Give the backbone structure.
Amino acid sequence: GAGVSQSPSNKVTEKGKDVELRCDPISGHTALYWYRQSLGQGLEFLIYFQGNSAPDKSGLPSDRFSAERTGGSVSTLTIQRTQQEDSAVYLCASSLDRRQGLGGELFFGEGSRLTVL
Amino acid sequence: DQQVKQNSPSLSVQEGRISILNCDYTNSMFDYFLWYKKYPAEGPTFLISISSIKDKNEDGRFTVFLNKSAKHLSLHIVPSQPGDSAVYFCAASASFTGANSKLTFGKGITLSVRP
Protein backbone atom coordinates (compact mmCIF):
# COMPACT_ATOMS: atom_id res chain seq x y z
CA GLY A 1 0.00 0.00 0.00
CA ALA A 2 0.91 3.64 -0.23
CA GLY A 3 0.81 4.42 3.47
CA VAL A 4 2.49 3.25 6.66
CA SER A 5 1.21 -0.19 7.55
CA GLN A 6 1.12 -1.53 11.10
CA SER A 7 0.20 -4.93 12.47
CA PRO A 8 -1.53 -6.18 14.45
CA SER A 9 -4.15 -3.45 14.72
CA ASN A 10 -5.23 -4.84 18.08
CA LYS A 11 -3.39 -7.05 20.53
CA VAL A 12 -4.62 -8.31 23.88
CA THR A 13 -2.07 -10.11 25.99
CA GLU A 14 -1.54 -11.27 29.52
CA LYS A 15 0.83 -9.57 31.88
CA GLY A 16 4.30 -11.04 31.58
CA LYS A 17 4.02 -12.13 27.97
CA ASP A 18 6.20 -10.75 25.17
CA VAL A 19 4.67 -8.92 22.21
CA GLU A 20 5.97 -7.85 18.81
CA LEU A 21 4.53 -4.99 16.82
CA ARG A 22 5.38 -4.53 13.18
CA CYS A 23 5.70 -1.44 11.03
CA ASP A 24 6.08 -1.27 7.26
CA PRO A 25 7.00 2.33 6.33
CA ILE A 26 6.33 4.19 3.12
CA SER A 27 8.73 3.04 0.42
CA GLY A 28 11.71 5.38 0.11
CA HIS A 29 11.30 6.98 3.52
CA THR A 30 14.62 6.90 5.31
CA ALA A 31 13.40 7.86 8.76
CA LEU A 32 11.19 5.66 10.93
CA TYR A 33 9.76 6.51 14.35
CA TRP A 34 7.85 4.73 17.06
CA TYR A 35 5.57 6.69 19.35
CA ARG A 36 2.95 5.59 21.81
CA GLN A 37 -0.18 7.23 23.09
CA SER A 38 -1.47 6.18 26.46
CA LEU A 39 -5.01 7.02 27.51
CA GLY A 40 -5.39 10.76 27.98
CA GLN A 41 -1.80 11.47 27.04
CA GLY A 42 -0.01 12.95 24.08
CA LEU A 43 2.29 11.15 21.72
CA GLU A 44 5.33 9.87 23.56
CA PHE A 45 8.50 9.37 21.52
CA LEU A 46 10.06 5.93 21.84
CA ILE A 47 12.73 5.39 19.18
CA TYR A 48 13.92 6.82 15.87
CA PHE A 49 15.81 5.20 12.99
CA GLN A 50 17.53 7.28 10.29
CA GLY A 51 19.16 5.40 7.44
CA ASN A 52 22.22 3.50 8.60
CA SER A 53 22.86 5.70 11.60
CA ALA A 54 22.63 4.38 15.14
CA PRO A 55 19.03 4.65 16.33
CA ASP A 56 17.97 7.26 18.87
CA LYS A 57 16.65 5.09 21.70
CA SER A 58 16.32 7.90 24.20
CA GLY A 59 12.55 7.51 24.53
CA LEU A 60 12.39 3.81 25.36
CA PRO A 61 10.84 3.66 28.86
CA SER A 62 12.71 0.58 30.07
CA ASP A 63 15.02 -2.20 28.94
CA ARG A 64 11.96 -4.34 28.30
CA PHE A 65 11.46 -2.31 25.14
CA SER A 66 13.57 -2.81 22.03
CA ALA A 67 13.22 -2.20 18.33
CA GLU A 68 14.92 -3.26 15.15
CA ARG A 69 14.80 -2.03 11.62
CA THR A 70 15.92 -4.62 9.12
CA GLY A 71 17.26 -3.67 5.72
CA GLY A 72 16.34 -0.06 6.26
CA SER A 73 12.67 -0.85 5.85
CA VAL A 74 10.41 -2.90 8.13
CA SER A 75 10.67 -2.31 11.86
CA THR A 76 9.64 -4.46 14.80
CA LEU A 77 9.00 -3.10 18.28
CA THR A 78 9.32 -5.76 20.96
CA ILE A 79 8.03 -5.45 24.50
CA GLN A 80 9.20 -8.17 26.86
CA ARG A 81 7.39 -9.19 30.04
CA THR A 82 4.54 -6.81 29.37
CA GLN A 83 3.03 -4.81 32.22
CA GLN A 84 -0.39 -3.22 32.48
CA GLU A 85 1.13 0.26 32.13
CA ASP A 86 2.36 -0.76 28.66
CA SER A 87 -1.25 -0.64 27.45
CA ALA A 88 -1.38 2.06 24.79
CA VAL A 89 -1.68 2.69 21.08
CA TYR A 90 1.73 2.23 19.49
CA LEU A 91 2.15 4.43 16.44
CA CYS A 92 4.76 4.08 13.75
CA ALA A 93 5.65 6.92 11.41
CA SER A 94 8.05 7.45 8.54
CA SER A 95 9.37 10.50 6.77
CA LEU A 96 11.61 11.71 3.99
CA ASP A 97 15.00 13.16 4.76
CA ARG A 98 14.76 16.79 5.84
CA ARG A 99 18.30 17.38 4.68
CA GLN A 100 16.93 17.26 1.16
CA GLY A 101 14.84 20.25 2.01
CA LEU A 102 11.72 18.20 2.31
CA GLY A 103 9.24 19.03 5.02
CA GLY A 104 10.18 16.31 7.43
CA GLU A 105 6.61 15.81 8.37
CA LEU A 106 5.78 12.38 9.66
CA PHE A 107 3.34 10.03 8.02
CA PHE A 108 1.70 7.85 10.65
CA GLY A 109 0.20 4.41 10.49
CA GLU A 110 -3.12 3.66 12.15
CA GLY A 111 -1.41 2.25 15.19
CA SER A 112 -1.40 -1.01 17.12
CA ARG A 113 -3.63 -0.95 20.18
CA LEU A 114 -2.03 -3.02 22.94
CA THR A 115 -4.03 -4.11 25.95
CA VAL A 116 -2.22 -5.89 28.76
CA LEU A 117 -4.56 -7.71 31.14
CA ASP B 1 8.67 17.89 32.05
CA GLN B 2 6.41 18.78 29.15
CA GLN B 3 8.31 20.74 26.55
CA VAL B 4 5.25 21.25 24.36
CA LYS B 5 2.08 22.27 26.16
CA GLN B 6 -1.47 22.42 24.96
CA ASN B 7 -3.15 23.66 28.07
CA SER B 8 -6.75 23.53 26.90
CA PRO B 9 -7.97 19.96 26.50
CA SER B 10 -10.97 20.89 24.40
CA LEU B 11 -12.55 23.63 22.32
CA SER B 12 -16.07 23.94 20.93
CA VAL B 13 -16.94 26.43 18.17
CA GLN B 14 -19.86 27.14 15.89
CA GLU B 15 -19.62 26.16 12.24
CA GLY B 16 -18.39 29.09 10.16
CA ARG B 17 -16.59 30.74 13.07
CA ILE B 18 -12.86 30.84 13.70
CA SER B 19 -11.15 28.12 15.75
CA ILE B 20 -7.97 29.14 17.54
CA LEU B 21 -5.85 26.36 18.99
CA ASN B 22 -2.93 27.37 21.16
CA CYS B 23 0.39 25.76 21.92
CA ASP B 24 3.31 26.80 24.13
CA TYR B 25 6.81 25.40 24.25
CA THR B 26 9.68 25.68 26.67
CA ASN B 27 12.71 24.48 24.69
CA SER B 28 14.33 27.48 22.99
CA MET B 29 16.17 25.10 20.67
CA PHE B 30 12.95 24.17 18.88
CA ASP B 31 13.00 25.64 15.40
CA TYR B 32 10.40 23.68 13.47
CA PHE B 33 6.77 23.35 14.45
CA LEU B 34 3.95 21.25 13.08
CA TRP B 35 0.28 20.62 13.64
CA TYR B 36 -1.27 17.20 13.25
CA LYS B 37 -4.91 16.22 13.16
CA LYS B 38 -6.20 12.91 14.43
CA TYR B 39 -9.57 11.25 13.94
CA PRO B 40 -10.62 8.34 16.22
CA ALA B 41 -9.04 5.00 15.31
CA GLU B 42 -6.74 6.65 12.77
CA GLY B 43 -3.14 7.76 12.90
CA PRO B 44 -2.37 11.49 13.08
CA THR B 45 -2.10 13.27 9.74
CA PHE B 46 0.09 16.24 9.00
CA LEU B 47 -1.75 19.52 8.67
CA ILE B 48 0.64 22.45 8.49
CA SER B 49 4.13 23.43 9.60
CA ILE B 50 6.22 26.50 10.22
CA SER B 51 9.92 27.13 10.47
CA SER B 52 11.29 29.52 13.08
CA ILE B 53 12.46 31.88 10.35
CA LYS B 54 8.81 32.71 9.68
CA ASP B 55 6.05 34.04 11.88
CA LYS B 56 3.12 32.96 9.74
CA ASN B 57 2.27 30.19 7.33
CA GLU B 58 -1.05 29.87 5.57
CA ASP B 59 -2.61 26.96 3.73
CA GLY B 60 -6.21 27.41 2.71
CA ARG B 61 -8.40 27.65 5.80
CA PHE B 62 -5.46 26.90 8.09
CA THR B 63 -2.94 29.44 9.32
CA VAL B 64 -0.22 28.90 11.88
CA PHE B 65 1.28 31.83 13.75
CA LEU B 66 4.59 31.66 15.59
CA ASN B 67 5.67 34.08 18.32
CA LYS B 68 9.22 33.09 19.16
CA SER B 69 9.71 35.61 21.93
CA ALA B 70 6.68 34.24 23.72
CA LYS B 71 7.44 30.63 22.73
CA HIS B 72 3.88 30.38 21.53
CA LEU B 73 2.19 29.22 18.39
CA SER B 74 -1.40 29.03 17.36
CA LEU B 75 -3.44 27.35 14.66
CA HIS B 76 -6.32 29.30 13.19
CA ILE B 77 -9.03 27.53 11.23
CA VAL B 78 -11.45 29.79 9.41
CA PRO B 79 -14.17 29.13 8.61
CA SER B 80 -14.51 26.08 10.85
CA GLN B 81 -16.39 23.11 9.45
CA PRO B 82 -17.93 20.06 11.20
CA GLY B 83 -15.34 17.86 9.45
CA ASP B 84 -12.65 19.72 11.34
CA SER B 85 -13.81 18.04 14.55
CA ALA B 86 -10.80 16.01 15.67
CA VAL B 87 -7.88 16.01 18.08
CA TYR B 88 -5.16 18.47 17.11
CA PHE B 89 -1.58 17.89 18.21
CA CYS B 90 1.11 20.53 18.27
CA ALA B 91 4.65 19.23 17.69
CA ALA B 92 8.14 20.71 17.66
CA SER B 93 11.67 19.68 16.81
CA ALA B 94 15.20 21.04 17.08
CA SER B 95 17.01 20.61 13.80
CA PHE B 96 20.44 20.98 15.37
CA THR B 97 20.06 17.43 16.72
CA GLY B 98 19.84 16.01 13.25
CA ALA B 99 18.06 16.33 9.95
CA ASN B 100 15.06 14.32 11.03
CA SER B 101 15.17 14.83 14.73
CA LYS B 102 12.30 13.46 16.75
CA LEU B 103 9.17 15.48 17.18
CA THR B 104 8.00 16.34 20.66
CA PHE B 105 4.22 16.38 20.84
CA GLY B 106 1.75 18.09 23.10
CA LYS B 107 -1.16 16.23 24.67
CA GLY B 108 -3.58 17.40 22.02
CA ILE B 109 -6.76 19.43 22.02
CA THR B 110 -10.16 18.09 21.02
CA LEU B 111 -11.95 20.45 18.66
CA SER B 112 -15.70 20.13 18.22
CA VAL B 113 -17.35 22.18 15.50
CA ARG B 114 -21.10 22.49 16.05
CA PRO B 115 -23.31 22.58 12.94
